[in-house]
Structures are given as structure tokens and as C-alpha cells.
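Let us begin with a simple case.
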Amino acid sequence: MSNSNLVIRNAEIIWRNFRGEGTDYNNAGKRNFNLLITDPDFAQDLINDGWIVKPKKKRDENESDKWTMKVNVVFGKRPPNIFIVTYPNGKMKKTRLTKDDITQCDWVEIQKLDLIIRPWERTTGPNPGRSAYLDTMYLTPLVDELAAEYLEDDFTDDEECP
């Protein structure tokens, strides 16, 4: 079993809960999301390597097979590096998110998402295996026509707009 991190480019995620809201499927305070996996070979490789990967229930019989892997987002001794990437005036700008402002990741439409996921071997409990923890995330939001027009770096939130 490899202990190396997973680098996932152009990731697709579902069931986002960056705010840690308690639901029927999530304990309050637990921040997480699920990586959606559509490649059966990749899903099988992850399973063979000990990652906790589950088949996603199909909505209808014509839907192709998909899998999910829950990724935990923990701000403890080793908080994840999370960045929103924008392109004001054509230049890349990275804004680091903290645990206080990461909730916007629950609702933002995603254009591109790259992740680094680190493993943690879970040896106790009913489901031993390799749990996934977010290490690094670069999220580029989908920018609509108005957002693109107003996405400028000539002024900050503290300054008065021209």
C-alpha cells in the first residue's frame, strides 16, 4: 500500500459540506466533500491501494457506473492549503481561504478544481481502510459575464469603487 498523496487534476466533487453542517448523512462540525470518480480503472486502483471508495447509486439504469471517495477537510495542527484562483485583468490571483471563509466553496460554481489528498490509515472502527484528507485545493470559480466585468484588481474591498 502506497502512503503517497493523490494528485487529482480537474476533479469533480459532489455532496459538498465545507461548512460542517449537521445532516442525516453528516455529523455537525465535520467538513467534507466527495470526490466523484467516473473512470472504473482509477476507482479499482484506489480500492486496491486501500482507499475507501464506494459505488454511487445510479439514478436510472442508463447511467454509467460512478464511485465516490469522501474527503475530510480538517483545520487542526495541519490545516489544508485552500485557494480560490481568479484572473483579474488577465493576471492570476490566488486568495487563500481559512476555516472562516471556506463555506463559499459549498455553493460556488466550479470551472476547474485541482486537489492533493493525503492518506490516513484507519485501523480502528467498523470500516478500517485509508481515509482521505484534503491537503491542497485550487478552485477556479466559473465566472459569468457580470463577474468578469467587475473582476478587477484596481481597488480593494476597503476602498471606494470609482
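The second case is a distinct protein. As before, the sequence precedes its C-alpha cells.
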Amino acid sequence: MFRGGFAHSLDDKGRVIIPQKFRLLLGEKFMITKGVDKCLWVFTEEEFRKLEDRLSAQPMLDSNVIVLQRFFSGEAVDATTDSQGRVALPSNLREFAMIDKEVMIIGAVNRIEIWGKQRWDEKSAAMTDELISESAREIGIG
């Protein structure tokens, strides 16, 4: 399970350090793709395979399935970290997530999310007690 948040900077080559505690859970190879709310989602290979398996089990011509397959797989990349724990974020994914220099890397249970710091600060500020309570009730844990 991925937990915690870490502030980092993107280097001149578009690389960011993945915190060691996350690297240990990710394994050698992992997947980076677009995420909801204009962030990047980072999955272990196993978790990404589960997502793809769920999508491929759906009716192939269902327009909702097509949208999700394109969104999650269309620009997904296989990734590894270098010897210093950095991962290169492709320019198309950085642009999608509005990542320029300052980055927030947060644990989100079964995945990591990579955010542009300003975007994360805005999203985090919008998570009011009311929204959190309502969301918890909606999924049956509140």
C-alpha cells in the first residue's frame, strides 16, 4: 500500500526522484499513465495488469470501455528508475499533468500519484470536510 506525500523537483531532463519507500513497493518495472484530475498515476505492473484485465473483460464496442482503454493505455509507458532513484516523465505526460518544476508525489493506496505542486495544492485545498464525508458516505464507509 502506498501512503504519504513527498515534495520533489523535476530536473532539466524531465526526471523526478521516486521516494525510496515507494520504489521498494513498485519493483524494478512499473507503469505510468494519465490519471483522473490531471495527475499521473503510477502502478506496479501487477496493478496495471488488473486494470487492463478489467477493461478487456468488458464489451469491446461499448463506448465507455473504448474511452477508458484509450485514456489509461493510450499513452501509458513502461518505466524504471535509474541508479539515483529518478524516473523520466515523458513530455506528453508532463504536459497533461501540468508538471513543470515542483512536484508532489503522493501515495494513493494501490498507486502513486504525481502532481504538479500548484495543481496538488489547489486540489488538496478543495478537499473539505464536507466533501470527504460525502465521498465516504457514497462508497459506504461513512
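The mean pLDDT is 96. Strands lie at 5-9, 15-17, 30-34, 40-44, 77-79, 86-88, 102-107, 112-116.
Keep these points in mind for the review questions at the end of the chapter.
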